[in-house]
Amino acid sequence: MTIKFSDITGGGIPYGNNAGRPANPGIGKLYSNGEEKRLELYTSTGWQNIVSETPGVVSVSGSYLESVGSATLEITGTNFTSGAIASVIGTNGVEITANSTTVNSIVSVSAVFSGLVAANEPYDIKVTNTSNLFGLLPDAVYVNNTPVWQTSAGSLGTFGENVSISVSAIATDDSTITYSLASGSSLPSGLTLNSTTGTISGTLPDIASDTTYTFTINASDGANPVVPRTFSIASNAAPTWVTAAGSLGEFAEQSSISVTLLATDGQTVTYSLASGSSLPTGITLNSSSGVVSGTLPDISVNTTYTFTINASDGINTVPRTFSILSRVVFPIEYLIVGGGGAGGDYFQGGGYNAAGAGGGAGGYLYSGSATSFLNAASIIVGAAGVSTATSNTSGGFASNGGNSTFEALTAIGGGRGGAGNSSVSGNAYTASSGGSGGGGVRPDGGGAFANAGTNTAGQGNAGGYYVSGDGDGGGGGGATAAGTSGGQGSQGGAGYTSSITGTSVVYAAGGGGGKGSSSQGGYSWSGSGGSGVGGNGGPKQANSTGSNASSTSYGSGGGGAGSGANDTSVFSKGGNGAGGVVIIAYPNTFPAATISAGLTYDLPTRSGYRVYRFTAGTGTITI
User: Fold this and answer.
1) The model's pTM
2) CB 549 within 8 A of CB 508
């Protein structure tokens, strides 16, 4: 039998659009909905599609944060029905059902998920209707990881001061990370943090001592909470040079030298030659002590060696440039003579009169051997001793000769002659002493001329009580004393003869003692100057004067004053000594010298030599 829907009791299955649905139909009533293109069944919850359609998943929105551990995802699609269930499927194949699923509409579902881990991402999103039909969108859900620091906390390195550095603090994440300094943290002056790359770069500051800088950096992906990590950068202070840059000294060729370089630091300092630098042949650098030592090479011209030494503490390296001047050694001769002392004065006494003693010769030093001459040598020419007596009521104003110097060598000036004197009745045998030679032990003692090649004087006689005092030598002869036995002034000590200038000259002869008088008669002789160039003693007469030493007898002493003939109203003066001299001579194959202002000199002629004779002043000579 043929059955038609229209024949079904109740008039068959109604049909139409949504608006044509029967009002207040009974549960179980069918309706053919042409608008929705489906057959509907009326249930306690309203009209439902009698045949379920497959849902479709189009997109998912919302962010699943690892730091939170749960998220509400909004799913859009088609044909979602009441009672639909949302789930995700990880890469491990495990399906995780949403904690709750809310069907907002046929095209919208809200689902709450938890327990998702990044290890199983990406997740497929699935919506299953009550008909067990489902829709699925692959690789739709990711877990937003919390940033993970890859750079270990703590030191990012140790660097020297004032150097450019570039270090990185890196974190990883499944999204873009930005970096920033945590509140209250700061980088060393001169360094900056790149917020995109995490690179810290710039130039470390100048510091006085080793310094550690500590700071905290935040890594953020903009969704999860920031992740802080604390780091540090150590900066090592560079060694400080104590030894000044420049010349380490001037030395003779082929001489042994030892010079210590010094730099200080909180760490151990080592020393090395900078790249491209070298020391003179035969000289080495001790890397631990900084001592530059060895034997300088043989050279033909003065040579300056310049080199750069690095002081390093293992991190910082500080260079400094030094130099050593090596000078050629050549056979230089020198004669250094101190100024001659003045002869002793005579002043008025009473009863008995003794004359002044002769002045002492200056000391002398001579060398004709090869001598290293270094740079600018200082020269001082000793002045002559002079008599300055001015009246008959004073005396003893004769002065010593001045010292002469060349480099570190000094020839002592001659001593002054003793002043003439007289005694009162009952002390008739008082005598004056001759001046000491250069370097003698007493200013007013009788002294011989300086011993050849030395800087010490021989000791002469102390005055001529008796005739036996005559000719005993001494820088200045002793004056006579009144007495029945009489006496005479001693002869001045012989000088030193040298031909350093090319001409034989007598230097440093003693002055003779003066001629005294006696009311009792007796001898009354005056002494002669040493070698004929020292001053002679004055005669026995009022206002007599001992003669000056010859102006060409450098360093010779002046003659002592003669006494008056028992005259109580006169005085006599001793003669002046001759000034000292400094003479140098060297082969003329070497360059001429440069003389500073302040020195008086001439240039004696000597075959094959350059000769410089300095007769006054103070200054320097440079060859």
Assistant:
1) 0.54
2) no
